[in-house]
Specification:
The complex is a heterodimer.
Chain A lengths: L1 H18 L15 E2 L38 E16 L4 E19 L2 E12 L2 E9 L6 E24 L2 E22 L2 E25 L2 E8 L2 E14 L4 E17 L2 E10 L3 E10 L12 E2 L2 E11 L12 E9 L3 E3 L2 E2 L2 E11 L6 E11 L8 E16 L1 H5 L2
Antiparallel strand pairs in A: 1-4, 2-3, 2-21, 3-4, 4-6, 5-6, 6-7, 7-8, 8-9, 8-10, 9-12, 10-11, 12-13, 13-15, 14-17, 15-16, 16-19, 17-18, 19-20, 20-21
Chain B lengths: L1 H15 L13 H7 L2 E4 L5 E6 L11 E8 L3 E9 L2 E2 L16 E18 L5 E8 L20 E11 L8 E5 L2 H12 L6 H7 L3 E5 L6 E5 L4 E8 L8 E6 L6 E8 L15 E2 L6 E5 L4 E6 L13 E10 L15 E7 L5 E4 L9 E4 L12 E4 L1 H9 L7 E5 L9 E5 L9 E8 L1
Antiparallel strand pairs in B: 1-25, 2-15, 2-17, 3-4, 3-11, 4-10, 4-14, 5-13, 6-9, 6-11, 6-12, 7-8, 7-10, 12-13, 16-24, 17-23, 18-22, 18-25, 19-20, 19-21, 19-23, 21-22
The chains are: A mainly beta, B mainly beta.
Amino acid sequence: MKNKIWFVLFFASQSVGLYAQSVATSPYSIYGLGSLFETDFGPISALGSSGIALPSTSFINNLNPASLGFIGKHSFFFDTGLKGTETNYKSENSSEKRNNFQFSHIAIAFPLNSKSGVSASLKPYSSASYVISNFQLPISNSNEFYNLNAASYGGLNTFDLSYGYKIQKGITFGLTTSFYFGSITNNKDFTIANSITNINKKSFYSGMRVTLGNQIKIDSTFNIGLTLKIPSQITGSKTQSVTTINDTETQYIEDNVASNVDDYYLPFEFGVGLSKSIHKNFNLTLDYEKSLWKNTNQNSVYGEFKNQDKFALGLSYLKKEQSFYYLDKIRYYSGFNYDTGFLSINNKNVNNMRFSLGVGIPIESTKSALNINYSYGIKGTVGNQLVKENYHMIGINLSLEAIWFVKRKYD
Amino acid sequence: MKYIWFLILVIAFFSSCQTDNAEGDFVVGSDYLSISNKVIMIDTLTVNVSTINLDSLITSNQSRILIGNYTDPILGIVKSESYMKLTPDNFYIGSSESDTQTVTYVFDSIAMILKYDRYYYGDTTKTQTINIHQLTQKVKPNTDDTNFYNISSLTYDSKSIGTKTFHPKPIGKDSINIQIDANFGKNLFNKLYNNEITDANEFEDLFKGIVIKPSTTSSSNMIGFKTSSVLRLYYKKNNSDSENSLTKDFSLTDLTKQFNNISLDRTGTIIENLPDSKNKLSSELTNNNAFIQSGTGLACRIDFPFIKQLKYISEKGIIVDAELVIKPNRSSISNLFPIKDSLQVYECDNLNRISKVLTNSDGSQKLALLNATPDEFNENIGYKVNIGAFLHQEMLKTTGAKSNLILAFPNISKGVNRIILGNQKNAENKLKLKIYYISY
């Protein structure tokens, strides 16, 4: 049994390695380190990504490490998923459909003892995939234009190690150490007057960040949570080749020259959340998160950043946890998420709004579930040279619980 | 745990059919795209234009006999005289050395037949007078040299052996005949007839060659002749009534032994003070014009004194392209003094020493091309050449002397075409330089 799990972990991590770096082709991927890939475990996606106050009792809560303090002392959780997105891009003049289907995460969590638990997870952080074809840009100091063709791929992944500890009944603290790593390859062709210049850049990034969390169980129906993400930086290096061709000759200006790239800064972020059970069958979750991107003073090569506010609301319904009827045990979720965005393009924020619905289908008699969620969202707006993205997203994840340590006891 | 296997299958399936199409038609934030790589155009870089005097154009072995004399209204008196060695195929009279008829032959006449090569410059409606003189010096370059130059000359007998005044018809006719002194011809005939000359050395001692000089008084044009032109000796049978004379040709068998001395008398002109070949005459001293004249060695030099400043635009940058447009002074162009449709571009140092000819990526010579034909005069007429690679190299130079460009007509040693070009301060024919730069 244990071997099987490790085998699956190995297999899945291979998948992540292979596929996590090509996430989406959003036009917004040119900024920062690419478009952020938001993925959550268990039913969280279906709850509009709310759940800072939810304990990790029936699935791994990736939003707050303090939730691991509530992990059952015999539970072993495994969570992995897929995400498919179909996006309709719309600008002032045209629209276009693109789709993407891919592996979204893999995570495990288990208790160390009755007071603490740990988790490890691997997931994509960002995607810098984009293509720009025959784009005309003005040449400074003239009324002429040059032509840009660009293609980029790659992105960053994160590997999180989390620890949660229950300091007293109903109060837990947690800590996550996130490791960011990845590379972005960027190839640009500039056609300027009678010349073509190719700049091929491969950037490598790595960094680390700490998240602190706290959860308090006020009573059996009401939990609150708090997270603090410590600002940190992702350092980069690059190798770059530059070639320019004109009617005279091909000049190899640089060939794989290594240099540093400007560091990318992750902001200070804090989040608060609450979870409240209503009428036994319903549970309401509500989160607010603020990210102080503006204070990062990010280098302008990454874009212009604004402080970000995120609001998340989720509602779940369960008829009966223990029931003779299977259908009674199915959980239903719905959620709403609004995010002001942290990018400002032509003085407009790229905001994002989405609604989600989901079901959690119980498996066997454990807390294992197959979670299926659907979201519809809108990112950005039309106008001011912005692009509006309407997307449909389907997420499938399997959240498995195995009762390990109990069995070992009776070996 | 069987669900794990199910999940593995699902992952494997979706991983393999992961789709990601990207047409790239959507771009947000065009201002942002310009941040990491700035593309700018610079059209304010100072360009210094001057006239230089290339004093040693090789005019031997150019396959043209250039003869003429005319007064250019701007540059002065242009003159070309042509020196050449003429040799016969053999050193006897008759069909062979043992021709039994030889004894019966007598001298008839001798003439220089100059064949037009269609090149002309100046006013061909005016007559040209040319004189032919015998050289008193062998046609031999200086020691350690194999070439003759536009400034080379040889001594000659002041007595002319032939002269002719004619209306040049470089396009309408094939050749002109210049009757040569019969005494000269007779002497040449007798020496061969009597077998007094049997080889090339003996022949050269007798007849070293000729110089064809234009009269300095009358002509107003410059005419090119082919090097297949010959000195033709006519002879016939004694006591024969036959009209058919026989001929013996003296021709230019070795083209390295023919050259043109091309000179320009600048006295009283705007470029009277043109310095020696190592210096330059700034166009600002010559009404914001620079001058090119083939043959006499006038060329236009272009300096970019502040090109290294462009290095400070950004930490790393490339001049990807640069377009230089230099305009001819339109009032100086006429049917008499037409311009050519291209200019050759050379790279030189501060002493005007040419280090190379600029070339295109296919190895061909880079030419500044005229973007309008002369009869379609308009504002945009000008010679255009892309010099991005040259300027990039100049910008990055950390050691060594600066390089400059020289503009001249192709076949600079063959003709006398001239052109007047404006500099950056020339209001009517302003030189323009557009530099395209990208930071990386």
